[in-house]
Amino acid sequence: MSNPRATASAVHREAVAAETARFVAAVKGADLTLPVPGCPGWTLADLVKHTGSVQRWFSALLRRRVQEPPRSRDVELRLPASEDGYPDWLADSAAEAASAFDGLDPDAPMWAWGADQHARFWIRRMLIETLVHRTDAERALGLRSGIDRDLATDAVDEFLVNLPHAAFFAPKVADLRGDGETLRFRCADTDGDWLVRLRPDGFGVEAAGREPEGTGADVSVRAAAADLLLFLYGRLGHDSDAFRVDGDEELLARWTANSAF
């Protein structure tokens, strides 16, 4: 019998390479001084450097199988002398990742800042960082940008499950508390369905999918998986025609204001 987690991890590994290749193709020969609307204050060069740096840092963590929080994020970046070399450098970063994945047991215990304390956490996180920033690059360049719906659904799940653990680098997350208020996020094109409950001591994802659409939560948001992902990452507003929102929009606004990743 196949191991679903191992299968998912294999998909994530392949997708890191595919998403990076799309990213590189978009920025190759582009003006890297262009601003990136999805990352205010960043240029395309900043975006490429960040993504490649994340891939190299996560690869270093995987090689070391870290068992406790690292004291430093310093890693040998081997940046090119000129920003013209950044696209090729990003492609090399993905090659570094592929090398780190080779022979890696995704179920190996590892420290991780999120809910899943295994090596697979970092592979999945690397993929989603790369995927979201690939779309940032394409949108900055005015290119058509799409996200595979199954990858998008998985990325929404990863975001919602890990967000309660993110307060140490996203401090406003600590303000997502309440007295049982619920938010429901539902994919229109897949079976993705999450119910988030705000509690006095924090918040978390509970089982969903048992209630008819538009019920079972104080506010519900329904959209295609890719649009829902971009909403959660602050790239798309829920006032877009892509979304159906039912219920307490003030609660949704409070979520949006405090869930920036």
UniProtKB/TrEMBL annotation:
UniProt cross-references to Gene3D superfamilies, sorted A to Z: dinb family like domain (1.20.120.450)
A GO cellular-component term linked to this record: plasma membrane
One protein family per Pfam:
MDMPI_C
Q: What are the GO MF terms of this UniProt record?
A: metal ion binding
Q: Which residues form the Mycothiol-dependent maleylpyruvate isomerase metal-binding domain?
A: 15-137
MDMPI C-terminal domain boundaries:
150-254
- Which PANTHER family does the record associate with it? CONSERVED PROTEIN
NCBIfam families under this entry?
A: maleylpyruvate isomerase family mycothiol-dependent enzyme
- State the protein's name: Maleylpyruvate isomerase family mycothiol-dependent enzyme
| Source species | Streptomyces albireticuli
